[in-house]
Design goal:
By secondary structure, this protein is an all-alpha fold. Helix content is 74%, strand content 0%.
């Protein structure tokens, strides 16, 4: 019996999940920056400031989507290019649109955007499988 091989598509999914996890981990402390300040907890939000963390997270997610769109442009046999490009373009546009209205001085707005990032992450579990589905 041979060893199981991890396919390129699985590595791609792993990369996508890792990148999203990094963005979520960076952003998770933003809604509670005041509590972290009171208890002297060193977070990226306190060290770099909310604007910098917001821009880093947004940049990481934008980069992730651009990379997935780029993968779709390669027309790989195991990937439906139209779904990969179209789905990630839509998610990229949603991220761009939604990130324009975040007021970083408003704790509720920060919490809502954090929840939005999680929704984008969950949507990947729809877009990615559709993009690699063996359509025939």
């Amino acid at each position: 019996m041979g060893q199981a091989q991890i396919t390129g598509v699985v590595w791609l999914l792993i990369a996508l999940i890792v990148i999203f996890s990094i963005a979520i981990a960076l952003f998770k402390d933003m809604p509670d920056a005041e509590g972290d300040r009171v208890y002297n907890i060193a977070t990226f939000t306190l060290l770099l400031g909310p604007e910098a963390v917001f821009q880093i997270v947004r940049g990481v997610l934008f980069g992730c989507y651009v990379a997935m769109i780029g993968v779709g442009c390669y027309h790989l046999v195991e990937i439906n290019s139209a779904v990969m490009i179209g789905g990630h373009t839509l998610l990229l546009l949603l991220l761009g649109w939604r990130s324009q209205s975040v007021e970083l001085s408003d704790s509720l707005a920060i919490k809502q955007f954090y929840q939005f990032i999680w929704r984008l992450f969950c949507l990947e579990y729809l877009v990615f499988p559709l993009a690699v589905w063996p359509w025939g």
